[in-house]
Specification:
Order of helices and strands: HHHHHHHHHHHH
Strand content: under 5%
Structural class: mainly alpha
Largest sheet: none
Number of domains: 1
Helix content: over 70%
Shape: globular
Number of helices: 12
Length: about 240
């Protein structure tokens, strides 16, 4: 779980979808899907904080943009967490294989998404993104609060299309917004859900280290290798969920 946390923190800082490492590990050691999900949500929050600190150079000068987008992620993440706890656990158990499959598809398509983002950049783009970008960011926050794997890939696509800026700076905003959605959801889960605190502690420690690795040295890792690991682990998670 500690090693999975390091991997998740690194991957979340780079592209997102690190929960496709930690969530299956929690399933593999025997936690029920709902407990695994809420524990993983809290565990990866320190990784987002660490990644944002590591990317502070890219975040410089983006205060107004964050002030604009953070409330959308905040409301979305809280809504997703409440929705998760309000629905019966059987509903989450039934739908989570589809969520994992969606996350895998997004990870596989991520290079193509990045190419399309580069093609669609235009001089007249909104500097901070318009109302549709805010709504889409809020929707991504709902997804992040409910499940969260590949939330970062969703946010990177939304922000990359809406904002006319360097993709590295957009990625830094993505790290903050994903952390906000997960963080507010984690507060809800601490108050109202049962967490596996030993798993939370191990993943939190690992993800905090991984956030720094992702910010400083992670760009040297072959993205194809990272993507392949995520897909294999995600498919294993789907198999386990369906077999259970």
């Amino acid at each position: 779980m500690l090693a999975a946390g390091v991997a998740a923190g690194t991957i979340n800082t780079l592209v997102g979808s690190g929960s496709l490492i930690t969530f299956p590990v929690l399933l593999a050691v025997g936690y029920p899907p709902l407990t695994a999900n809420v524990s993983n949500n809290l565990g990866v929050v320190p990784g987002s904080i660490s990644g944002a600190i590591g990317l502070r150079r890219e975040l410089r000068g983006q205060r107004a943009r964050l002030v604009r987008f953070v409330p959308a992620s905040l409301l979305g993440g809280a809504s997703g967490a409440v929705l998760l706890l309000a629905l019966p656990a059987s509903a989450f158990d039934a739908i989570v294989p589809a969520f994992v499959a969606l996350a895998i598809v997004l990870v596989v398509l991520q290079p193509r998404i990045n190419r399309r983002l580069a093609e669609r950049r235009r001089a007249g783009a909104d500097e901070h993104g318009g109302a549709p970008a805010l709504l889409a960011t809020g929707a991504a926050g709902v997804y992040g609060g409910y499940f969260g794997a590949a939330q970062g890939v969703l946010l990177l696509a939304i922000l990359g299309i809406a904002i006319d800026d360097d993709l590295h700076r957009v990625n830094a905003v993505k790290v903050v917004l994903a952390g906000v959605a997960n963080g507010v959801a984690a507060v809800v889960f601490v108050i109202a859900a049962d967490l596996a605190w030993e798993a939370v502690a191990l993943i939190a420690a690992g993800s905090a280290l991984g956030g720094q690795l992702g910010a400083h040295a992670g760009r040297r890792l072959p993205p194809g290798a990272l993507r392949a690991v995520i897909v294999v682990v995600g498919l294993a998670a789907i198999a386990k969920l369906l077999l259970d």
